[in-house]
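Morning F.,

Quick status update on the modeling queue. The single chain you submitted on Monday has been processed. Sequence for confirmation:
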Amino acid sequence: MSKYDVAVIGSGPGGYVAAIRCAQLGMKTAIIEKYSTLGGTCLNVGCIPSKALLDSSHHYEDAVKHFEEHGIDIPGEVKVNLKQMIARKQTVVDTTTGGIDFLMKKNKIDVYEGVGSFIDATHIKVTGKDATEIEAANTIIATGSKPSSLPFINIDKERIITSTEALKLKEIPKHLIVIGGGVIGLELGQVYKRLGAEVSIVEYMDRIIPTMDKALSKELNKVFKKAKFKMNMSHKVKSVERVGDEVVVKADNKKGEEVEFRGDYCLVSVGRRPYTDGLNVEAAGVKLTDRGQVETNAHLQTNVSNIYAIGDVVKGAMLAHKASEEGVLVAETIAGQKPHIDYNLIPGVVYTWPEVAAVGKTEEELKDTGIAYKVGSFPMRALGRSRASMDIDGFVKILADEKTDEILGVHMIGARAADMIAEAVVAMEYRASAEDIARMSHAHPTFTEAIKEAALAVGDGALHV
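C-alpha cells below.
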C-alpha cells in the first residue's frame, strides 16, 4: 500500500493548488480525482469555459453592433458558428486542464483517477480506473460543489438544464428562461442573448446579484434592460414542466399573481451545493453541518485532527480563488507554518459586460452594523478611456471610515472591473485610506483612473466630474 504525507481528494482550484503547495513544502503528495481530467468544476464546466463563451459572444456582438461605428465594414452578413464557438471553448478547457497535468508531473504528485472514499481516518479507497487503497497521514477534502435545483424541478439535461449543459448546447435557444439572477444565470444568459436568443431572468429576490452592493444590482439591471433582457424580480417559481420541445415555467409575482413563461430551454441556476457524495466521511468520523458542508475550525481542520477541508465543500463564498487560498493555508498549516486568510478581502466578480467586482463591506452591511462611513463615486462615462472604447456604463464606489478614512469597501461596475478590483484588494490589505489612493498617480488614459477619482470623491471631490 502506497503511503503519503498528504492525500487530496478533488482536483479543482482548491485541491490541485493544495497539492502543489504540499509538494513544494517537501511532502509526499497524492491527488484523487473522479473524472478523467483535472481542474474540477472551474476548469472543466465552470469559470474557464464560461469565460471563453463570454469572450466569443462579446466579439460577435461587437462585430454586429459596434464595428460600423468604429469604421470597420464587414461585407456580407456576420453569422454565428455555434459549433466552432463551442469547439474553441473546449480547446481552451483542454489546454488549461492539460496544464494541470503538467504541474502534477513537475511537482512529483501522484494522480489517481477514481472516487476517493474513507476507509478510516488514515486510509482511502480509490474506486475507478486507478482502483487501489492508499494510506495518508493527512487528508484534504476538496470535493467542491454541484449545481443546486428546486425539489419540484426535473432537470432532464436536454431542455431543462444546468450550467454544465448550457456550456455545450447544439443550437441557440429561441427563448431561454433563466431561473436565478445570480452570477451563473446572468453570465450564461448574456452569452445567449448576444447570440440572438430572447432571455427572461426569473429571480426570487427583489434584485439581481442580491449578495452584492445594491447600487451594483441597480446599475447592472439597467444595463440588462437596455439590452432587452426580460427582468422578472420577486418571482417565486412553483413549477417547471417540459411539454415536447417547450418548457413551461409558472411563478407567483410579488402581487401573488400567477405568471407563466414559455421557452425552448430553461436554465436552472439557483446556486450550488457542497458535494460529498461517495466520500464516506462517516468512516473517518468527520462531521457535516446541517447544510451538508464539512465542518471545520478556523484552520480548516475537521473534528478529526489529520483531516482538513477547503473550497466549496466548506462554509463561505463558493469562489475558485477562495478555494486556492484555503488550499495554500492548509498545506502550510500541515507544514507547521502559521498562515492566515482575511475573508473580508476575497474579491467577488461577475463576468458580464460590463463586469461587476467588489471587495470588503457593502453599504448595506455598514448601515446594518452602525459603522459611520463616507462615500465617493465616479461614473465610467466621465473617463476618456471609456469613451474611446465605447464602454461608458458603470461606476466605481469607495466606502471609507468617516473618522479614519480607511477604505472599508470598493464596488465597481464597468469595463475590466474584474482586473481593476485587485488594486482595491492591495490597498485594503495594507489598510490604505481613500486619500492614499487619491494621491497615487494613475496612468492616463486608463479605466483605473475611475478608482482614483472615486477616492478623491470621498474627500474634497473628484476632479473630472
